[in-house]
Design goal:
Elements lengths: L1 H21 L25 H4 L7 E2 L5 E2 L6 E4 L2 E8 L4 E4 L5 E4 L2 E11 L5 E2 L6 E9 L4 E11 L6 H4 L8 E7 L10 E7 L7 E8 L3 E4 H10 L16 E3 L1
Length: 248
Amino acid sequence: MGIARMCLSTVLLLGVLARAEDAPKPEEKHWSYLHGITPTKWGEVSPTCATGGHQSPIALSTKQAKPQAPAQPLELSWTKATGELVDTGHSDQVNLPPGSFITYGGKRYELQQFHFHSPSEHTIDGKHAPLEAHFVHRSEDGKLAVVGILLKQGTSPSPFAPVLTALPATGEKKSVEVDLPALLPKSTRHFAYAGSLTTPPCSEDVQWIVMLDEDAVSKPEIAGFQAKYAKNARPVQPLKGRTVAIAP
């Protein structure tokens, strides 16, 4: 009888464990721009989005920014590359192979990917551009530096056209040739400030380099992206005492 009771107890225990494993797990919270967990509620996904002291994007001002001192030289070493164009569910993104990098303040950051926001997340002197491209770089020790370029409307096809006119469907991946040097404005004069990722988890300690000069993309290029992502931009965040520099 003792053995029988032991066997019965074992069977009951295994049944309880099986039911626990089969029980539905709480769903992960999914953030968005327009529905459900929108930017003002992103703290529900990552507390840093709500409590961080160095959040991005911000409103940039040519009148209020200070000349950079000491100077932090910016060197851009981008090359032509074949990237993988994907729809992340929040933007269209080009993942890039090794080979392109920047050096900022004597530190090297490898270019990982670039993606787009509409309208621009940063403002310059109170104005948004139709699009903003973010070029995400990572250093050997895991630090991030993001180069932001605001994209205004122009009259002719731009170097961004191979990407913006070949946007993938959800879940689709496309190979795309990208002339990275051609994507840069003629001037590398820029704003520099300490910020964060502009999407959850909103991690801070990100070096932001936002070009003062805007690039131009055509109306069809803008329309093509906005047809998929009419609004995928986080509102500007409080400066909270940070210094924004203008660098030559």
